[in-house]
Amino acid sequence: MSEDRATVEKEQPVEAAQPPPPPMPAPTGTTQEEVTKIMLGAKAEGSISAADLAEKLAVLDITTDDTDAVYQRLVEMGVDIVEDEAILEEEEEEEEPAPDADEERARARREVEMALKAPTNDPVRMYLKEIGRVSLLTAQEEVSLAKRIEAGVFATEELADPAAKLTEARVNELRWLEFDGDRAKRHLVEAN
């Protein structure tokens, strides 16, 4: 008998390796009819938005598994399920080029000026206005200020060294570096 079974199995035509379509949701006859109407309408149009499909299926009494089966069946039928228009518009907006850095700085400066003109008694708002008066530093500006501060510290140390034999020109140069270092330190503190 095992030979007969093997022969019968060999004689049966082998179909292409396609999985069977998912079962249609069928909680009730009315629901099945509504789902069929939705699917035939989408097939006739060739596409349906995901929001419309979700809205139409939400009023029906079907499970999430049945909803997934409807989505799968629509895909198998060749119906395009498109994204919402709002999502597509957001994607288009994201593709726009970024504004120029100079334009962005000018816009930010105008906003700060407008905010500074408005009077307020709120201490937090007053603090924010105060710190907004000085623009933030770039990385290059921070490095430059750090170098000036360091030069000022070294100048102060060299001026304080009693064993150093300094000419009047060198003393003036060191005092200027010390003053410039203090100025750079104040600028750094104000900007951050």
Question: What is the structure about, briefly put?
Answer:
The protein is 69% helix and 3% strand.
- Determine Rg (CA atoms, Å): 38 Å
Structural class: mainly alpha
User: What is the overall number of helices?
Assistant: 9
Query: Average pLDDT across residues?
Result: 76
Report the sheet-strand fraction: under 5%
Q: What is the molecular shape?
A: rod-shaped
Q: What is the CA-CA span between the terminal residues?
A: 90 Å
> Strands across the major sheet, in which order?
1-2
Count of distinct strands: 2
Largest sheet: 2 strands, parallel
Task: Report helical residue fraction.
Answer: 55-70%
Low-confidence stretches: none
Q: What is the H-and-E element order?
A: HHEHHEHHHHH
What's the arrangement of secondary structure elements?
Layout lengths: L1 H10 L17 H17 L1 E3 H9 L5 H13 L3 E3 L2 H11 L5 H17 L5 H10 L6 H22 L7 H24 L1
Parallel strand pairs: 1-2
Helix pairs in contact: 8-9
